[in-house]
Amino acid sequence: MNNDDVYKIHMATMEVLERVGIIVENDNILCLLERAGAHIDKKFRKAKIPEYVMKEGLKKVPSSLIVYSREGKKVSIGGDKTVISSGAGATWMLDLETGEPRPAMKKDSEHYSVVTDALESFSLCMSPIIQDVTPALVDVHSAEAMLCNTYKTPWVCPGDGEQARYIIEMGAIAAGGIDELREKPTILGLASPNSPLRIAPKDLDVTFQFVENKLPITFINCPDNGATTPVSIAGTLVVTAAECLSMVLISQLITPGTPVAAGPSPPFMDMRTATPAFGAPEGALVVAGAAQVMRYYGIPSYGSIVSTDTIGIDAQTGYEIAWTAQLPMMAGINLVNGIGLIGSCNGCSLEKLVIDNEVFGGIKRIMKGIDVSETSLAVDVIEAVGPGGHFLGQKHTRELLTKERWFPKISNRLGLQEWKKEKLDLWQRARKEAKEILWTHHPDPLDDKAKEKIRNLVKEAEIKMMKSSA
Amino acid sequence: MSEEQRSLNEVVEAIDSFEEEKILSSVKKCLELDIDPSEIIEKGIGKGLRIVGERFERGEYFLTELVGAAEPAQKAVKELLEPELKKKTGKAKGIGKIVLGTVEGDIHSIGKNIVAAMFFAAGFDVIDLGEDVPAEKFAQTAKEAKADLVGASALLTTTLPGQKKVVEALKAEGIRDKVKVIFGGAPCTPEWVKEIGADGYAENAMQGIVVAKKLLGIKDQ
Question: Please, which pLDDT band fits residue B219 given cuts at 50, 70 and 90?
Fold first, then answer.
């Protein structure tokens, strides 16, 4: 979109917020909005937000969101860089041995964390939705799995305020205290609106837990194009912006200056099966558009990419990754996930994590572009080699090789005879790599004391849950 | 062709045009001609929806046409025809009656809405309880309405146990053996449905109808 188009999205978004409004299912937060100048319909719990109220609130948003790895490495989300995370939301997993889909277990969440930890393109880690634990505590269990198995920042998505509270406490244990966690956040939160234009109590509770603690949080909507948002891309962007901006505004009203990022995880409802297609090429346009719109508001942008619709791993996986990955990154999206996901975000696979890592290696190389300098123009070397010579032995080649070239890890570049020995396809090579990582890579980000404290906290949550449901 | 027949055909055409106003006014015209409401449902609305459904199955129509026809058609039945039926013989009789909703704690409704529209289009009487529906409400409604089928969806792993509660509530109301229970939703699996003692699992709305018809012994005409 050109700047005029982005401005039109902005104007339409402001009109929707002011005339249509958004349902906010929490009376305290409605009061906050009312005090800020929004018009509240108490009966329908709807807030109509005038443009000046939104603009005033957005002034307080930090231009970047900073989290840290367990080793203290800074991950800055904002500006023109893209930070990449493994993806969440899968309830099943392709078994690494059999290749068959089966329910995702806590052990899988641990493996997912270990493999994410080992792959260089990823800075953040998410978890599948594990099926072998108490359903009401699934996010607490996956937070434990991530905290204990990766140095990378766990990006958590608690289903309710209670789980958010536990997870923040777990994060504080890992960081050595809540103040330490606030100073250098090593977890990142997530809450979602329900399209169209509704923010449910549980998501407001989660928001409140993070924002009250001044911990960074992301606001992600899931605009099911044609079903829960208009079928037009621009209309989907308007609803996305209206929902994300409302949640950002709420965060800034609770605690001004809370670091946030926001954007869409956009499925395109298949109009024959109602399956939410995440690998659709249109999804790339929504995410790229959202990157532009969020930049207009000075909010670090988020988008979900590369979560393909195939069940196994095949050529469709490949082209859906290609469709959805490159454009949003070229549009300057700041934070992405979806990595490792298949089956329309319902499944995940360690092989896919490895493949996505490879894809991002290549994309990052493309994004680096062409370096044009005296050294790279290489007139001296061309002269030294002269017509008919070669460049292989030149110092220039040796010195610039790793700067100019990216080195694939699992892509096939074997000759025919060499390939004939094993005839491995990409999926098989990725599986080999994933297994290799699980054998050799053993991240141990927490000391035993912290691990025990976290384990006890999970037990405490279980006992409390049992008592309350008894 | 008689005027009655022409008017019923207009209802069929109106349904295939997806225009709410056209559908409502064509039904009104039939009522003015004193055509029996159950005949309007059978030979007007039902016929129209069957045509739309067949075109959907052949791939000529998308969900947008199917839902676009079913929702206003359902409105016409609810607002215009059911009140008339109550005055006369009783209730409209579909091929089966289903009570539908999203389980307690879950506010995701789009999948359930599609299921509701498709069941209606397939000739079922649909009682849609909406979203965030307590298990007891499913059971009470099914009992009062003498439903043949109860369907509940859940999108979240955290709300999935709500489906088990629906089965338990039906037992508590003493009607578990009188209704068939089908479930769906992203985290729902055939194994889960078996584990909690329900009757059928459907991955999507189309499958839902196939499963429902099979459970109720309804044969396609």
Answer: confident
Q: Does any domain span residue B137?
A: yes
Mean pLDDT for A234-262 is: 98
**B11 lies in the same domain as B59:** yes
For residue B206, the enclosing domain spans: 97-216
* CB–CB contact B157 A228 (8 Å): no
Mean of pLDDT values over B86-111:
84
A439 CB-side CA count, 13 A: 6
Which residues contact residue A22 at a Cβ distance below 8 angstroms, ignoring those fewer than 6 apart? Answer: A46, A47, A49, A193, A197, A198, A199, A242, A243, A246
**Chain A residue with Cα closest to B53:** A272
Give the mutation candidate from B158, B191, B195 for the A interface (greatest A CB count, under 10 A): B158
Report CB contact under 8 Å: B157, A131: yes
Residue B157 and residue A135: Cβ atoms within 8 Å? yes
Q: Where are the alpha helices (DSSP H) in A255-331?
A: 281-297, 315-330
Q: Which residues of B touch A273 (CB under 8 A)?
A: 204, 206
ipTM of model: 0.83
Q: What is the pLDDT of residue B221?
A: 58
Residues B55 and B125 in one domain: no
**Would you say A161 and A203 are in contact if contact means Cβ atoms under 8 Å apart?**
no
For chain B, the domain total comes to: 2
- Residues 136-165 of chain B with CB under 8 A from chain A are 156-158, 160-161
